[in-house]
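Dear colleague,

Following up on Tuesday's group meeting, I ran the structure prediction for the four-component complex that the binding team flagged. I've pasted the input sequences exactly as they went in, so you can double-check that nothing got truncated or mislabelled along the way. The structure tokens for the whole assembly follow below. Feel free to forward this to whoever is handling the docking comparison.

Inputs:
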Amino acid sequence: MTEKKKKPTSFDVAKLANVHRSAVSRALSGKGRVSEETRERVMKAAQELGYRVNYLARGLHDQNSGLVGLVASRLDTPYRALQVKVAARELLAQGYCPILIVAEGDMTLPGLIDRLLNYNVAGMIVTSDSPPAEIIDECKRLAVPVVLVNRDLRGTEADRVQLDIQASGQLAFEMLYEAGGRRFAVLEPKEQTYTVTGRARVFADCCRAAGLPVTVISPQRQNYPDGLEAAELFQDSGSEADAVFCTTDLLALGFLDGLRVRQGCRIPEDLQILGYDDIEQAGWLGNDLSTIRQDAGAAAVLAVELMQARIEDIDRPFEVATIPIAPVWRGTTRKKDAP
Amino acid sequence: MTEKKKKPTSFDVAKLANVHRSAVSRALSGKGRVSEETRERVMKAAQELGYRVNYLARGLHDQNSGLVGLVASRLDTPYRALQVKVAARELLAQGYCPILIVAEGDMTLPGLIDRLLNYNVAGMIVTSDSPPAEIIDECKRLAVPVVLVNRDLRGTEADRVQLDIQASGQLAFEMLYEAGGRRFAVLEPKEQTYTVTGRARVFADCCRAAGLPVTVISPQRQNYPDGLEAAELFQDSGSEADAVFCTTDLLALGFLDGLRVRQGCRIPEDLQILGYDDIEQAGWLGNDLSTIRQDAGAAAVLAVELMQARIEDIDRPFEVATIPIAPVWRGTTRKKDAP
DNA sequence: TTGAAAGCGCTAACAG
DNA sequence: CTGTTAGCGCTTTCAA
């Protein structure tokens, strides 16, 4: 065990290779000009010592740690988990390292973001539910690029990747209408969320514009249990609806279970149901939920691109990229081709 | 727009507060002794300038960045997502910052871990499926604490947090036996995994030890689609089993759907089913899956504790902590109290 | 092409 | 209690 605990530095490599530290830096970073021979000697020495560049030191020097904040909440929710996964992967693929900040719980988001800022992050990707506007401002003050994914934060200027709310609500209406729905209901959670609330309203507007009735049901939040709650509310409301837009798959799945299991309702015979997101569970045989797919992979790629673009030019105009969506016909609506 | 783009340093604060930089450091870190008056002046100046300590510089100085690697795979799977969430939260709560490394995809794990090491991480928590032993060795060489969560990696020495495999398989057997099962089957994925394969085998052993028949069904992997596959395999096998241990909830849910939806099987009347993990979806009304809960929160806390203990004393003996488990009786088994 | 030297921002040990 | 000083490990001009 003659192993030294101390990690080798570029100085050690230099000594072993009989060159100066700066030569080591040049050889390994490939930045400056180095003779082939020197390069090889350095490489060998580095190899031998198990040397690795200290990114902290490098970051300290050129003000860029390569770290990126990835701020998310409700990470145990299928869609969010997917979002974080693809974002992390994309970041990693582009040479960044994502620092994961999970917002929920007792820890306060501003405090956590603060910590992030202490690391000189190259940027931040935020999918959290409620990022206080102040922190966005603080980031701007520090010239840290922030990309908001499906967040509103009206009034704050930042690059965004988001769903087309108008198109979403409208597509939902069209799908249910095409499937034969004529009396509608929509789930609009009390606890508001930019995209969810948005598409619920657009959907309702579409119904009204078509001169068709629409009942608004308001569960507390937007998860599975809230879907169950919504099923009760729906029943209590005595609504005559024959088609319901559930605004998130989790809501839809809860609603579906509440209706089927507790109320013995037949889907889609008695009632057609449409979700939103296309989480994996929507495709499970027992659920077979018709829904609208939100392309998480594309969203992640867009977010990272926007971030990089702003890193390169901090003063460029703010941009909004749109996440692609697509209808997914499954068993909770009547066949599209046989309405 | 008189804003300077340059971030303020401790030097700027010192200047404004009319003290030396070291005083600033002391005042803000609370480490050394500072007079009340100085502290206040520094605080005010720091506030005014929007100063924040540069952790990179600090880390460079005391060889500890406060960064921790969180290595995970299959992040879009409910249990894993939960695991990552609680681990990240615990890390954050303890003052660390988790760097999220997602293992799957084309990016090779060793390369990513390498990058992690460049950041002088204080430690690593690994829940990934297949962390090559070499990287663990590399970490040890660099004196970076590694905690393995539910990973085997026999031969490598590291702290671990893991399920009691023996107890798990046995509990599964006891539950199904208590519920009235007498002819068993168990799902043991071809693609082996330490804990999953382990409990499958222990379960089978328990059956045999009790002199009761047990059929082993081997789907490819351990996710929902594999559960569906297992249902087909099960039917083809012509097994007479009346109780099946599914080894993961995802498998169980797929198996359940395959049986119910495709084969019109009645659960639990025709067949009892037991899962493992207690993911959120197991509790959904439409599934109502009996299972064994694995306490992810406790596991995360244990993992972080182990990591901290090793940070404090790198030479302490390796430790293995056990994740608590508990039976969860739901509707896919007959009532425990009425077998 | 290579070496020398100046920092990046912070902290801790040491004087005063 | 406060200022001075010496690095932490790396990169990058600037000369040679």
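The radius of gyration of chain A is 26 Å.

Cheers,
M.
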